[in-house]
Amino acid sequence: MSDSSSSRRDLLKGMALAGAGLAFGASSLGAEESGTASGAPDGTPSLAPSMMGVPFEKRETVRIAIVGTGLRGRSVLHELTGVPNVRITALCDTVPEKIEMAVQQMRKAGHDYEPARFSKGPRAYEELVKRDDIDIVYTATPWEFHVPIVLAAMNAGKHAATEVPAAYSIEDCWKLVDTSERTRRHCLMMENCNYGYNELLVLTMAKAGVFGELKHAGAAYNHDLREILFENRDEGLWRRRHHTLRNSNLYPTHGLGPVAFMLGINRGDRFDYIVSMSTPELGLSKWRKDHEPADSPKWKEKYVTGDLSSSLIKTAKGRTIRLEHDVSSPRPYSRINSLQGTNGIFEDYPARIYIEGQGEEHRWTSIDAYKAKYEHPLWRELGEKARSGGHGGMDYVMAYRLVQCLREGLPPDFDVYDAAAWSAPGPLSELSAAKGSAPMKFPDFSRGKWAEERASL
Amino acid sequence: MSDSSSSRRDLLKGMALAGAGLAFGASSLGAEESGTASGAPDGTPSLAPSMMGVPFEKRETVRIAIVGTGLRGRSVLHELTGVPNVRITALCDTVPEKIEMAVQQMRKAGHDYEPARFSKGPRAYEELVKRDDIDIVYTATPWEFHVPIVLAAMNAGKHAATEVPAAYSIEDCWKLVDTSERTRRHCLMMENCNYGYNELLVLTMAKAGVFGELKHAGAAYNHDLREILFENRDEGLWRRRHHTLRNSNLYPTHGLGPVAFMLGINRGDRFDYIVSMSTPELGLSKWRKDHEPADSPKWKEKYVTGDLSSSLIKTAKGRTIRLEHDVSSPRPYSRINSLQGTNGIFEDYPARIYIEGQGEEHRWTSIDAYKAKYEHPLWRELGEKARSGGHGGMDYVMAYRLVQCLREGLPPDFDVYDAAAWSAPGPLSELSAAKGSAPMKFPDFSRGKWAEERASL
């Protein structure tokens, strides 16, 4: 409990400091109302060439710094230390004890060297990024720190990887794009679900034409987080606060990233516009009523995020995407993961498929029969090892691929344009819902380069 | 084949005649563009009192006329002749042979009397409605005849029942409402899915509070009709044509009617506005390419209805509804039938439920455990007999309830305000999709009476 309290105090101090300079944490409506709606620099040509398709420099060993060594940071560390040719050169957290937990974990994984430690206040990462032994800074902090840390890393000449969402205002999405282009450093939003077994299986099938011409996909983050959101530790210390700030899809990328790959977003198609609406807020208020004592400080909070945010996205090619977010309701987990084309349809939770001419007419069938032919090569290669890791194995595949791309001098699987496009439904869903579900245009973060056909992964 | 050809010729002749007078079959955009958008008379007080909650007159025997004795009409006839105290007094169809098939069916069901026959052209129903031995006219024709037949019946002092959708323009929805109020006759849109086993089970559970406070529902008509749409008989003769006229949700009521009951639409809540978007049209074009010979007259058709129409509806109480329509894709059947509240969630296809505190945490479970307590009384009473009939039994339950309400002098289960509200997403989804998914307001067909709390069924 004392650990929790000090961690929370430090965090809130950090928020206040950061808020003074960057106004993150504020509703994206603020930006809109002050006349910079949905991306002030939209259409503005960049001063530097695109980062799309730009390969990393080759290197033997990948030197990684991790900012944020809480639950997620240590989980990421676990995966990365299991990949060969990785060196963890620096760790940063406002809570020194969490850094030491991370170092202990490195020891167990056979990484017997001393990483540099940074824990002096919420801006310690500013010192970290100055080092010359870091190839990429991996950010696994609360959401409000993603943008400043990523910007600092790129401005200091480091590639930047961040947990999701990369940003939650359109202005910040543009800052990431502009800074990546100017500094020639990549910004990768580490969407682990893009490496999920089913997601990569369906992606492979889509590329092989099994679904025919694609027309629709479904994506969600429907995950009952009520208990976690109200804990006095870990995510409970900062994540619930976002439910007091914005009525929007707070966390769009876990479902959207994978279907963006399948539909070739920024690889021949792009998100054109979104409409969104939310149910009333009921879930967190009910949880608090049912579980919090009358003198809990949480009774001062006012939750504004509707329980279920439902959006529809239209793409430039006219395809449609259903997008949902619900972390405040009793319900089984689902990211929906659906894909529909002229030949058939896949839906997940549970995984099931129907391809015309295969199996019984108009009946769902198992995806198992497709695995022999369409299992993604990454899973064929890594599956056994991956499955012992986090989130069913996707976390290890993601860590492996990050290191592989950096070592072999490949372009990253996803770039700053993906980070911006997949994060943008956060602020755009808020704007749409606030304006009676009016359609909101996506900025073209790629400045026209989206139309070039490229394969995903 | 000769039967089909003559039937088709007669049908097209009927369309031309009817079109001259009533302009049905035209896109609802026409009405909108000429300045009568989404219901010209919205807000206009009626000249007559509401029909909401108005009981039928009691009677011993229910005398029914059926207009349209094709596949659906004869199926309805089969159910009605299985209900006691029913007399089929008149039959109408443009094809006399179909009337005789209906009469043969009556004989088999023990109805050994002569119904009056009307088959002189597409307006023969105008003679039928003049008879004085009819309590209610049941319309099971192609969609374009629903409104003129229902109006003729009410204007002739008969109650009117129609297959779905009741109408597909907002103007026509208002005509139904105004005429029902003026003539004091009921207009019932016979939405059989409102009587489905699962739908009534979930409705009963919702009324008992099992789901807690309701916040979201899902509804669809996702049914691969491609083969049927291209047949040279039955629905293939007229239904495909609608895919050349409107880019919209052509058939919204099978999914929407049941969830409208669950959410208490027109019984304390109402549809406020809708946003909609469609995928490109690909499915019918592909089917034609794969199946039609090069000299088929169908190659002259241009399909404009996007394969999947996705809509979101916001209610006055702030709840949300997901609504889909897809009859042009290879896919398993689904009406979605989902309902979500603060205590849990139900989804159909396959039926599964999660209620907090019951069963394994965050796992779907079967609905079977709820049947003993929450099976709807109608199914408890009629289930065994119903299941031998059409559509899993819902058709018999519907027929039984229609006769029961008419005999016992009850208000109908659904009235003209339901017919209008449940049909309205057809034209409103077209308007929204055509305007880049802009939100379209529902007219308040009930003129304010929606706010009165009433139980559904």
Largest interface: A-B, 45 and 45 residues
> Beta-strand percentage of chain A?
15-25%
Distance between the termini of chain A: 44 Å
Query: What's the tally of helices of chain A?
Result: 17
Q: Based on CA inertia axes, which overall geometry of chain A fits?
A: globular
- Count of individual beta strands of chain A: 14
Poorly predicted sequence stretches spanning 5 or more consecutive residues of chain A: 1-41
The quaternary organization reads as homodimer
Average of pLDDT of chain A: 92
Helical content band of chain A:
25-40%
Strands in their spatial order, largest beta sheet of chain A: 13-12-11-7-10-9-8-14
- The computed structural class of chain A is alpha/beta
Radius of gyration of chain A: 21 Å
Q: Largest sheet of chain A, described in full? A: 8 strands, mixed
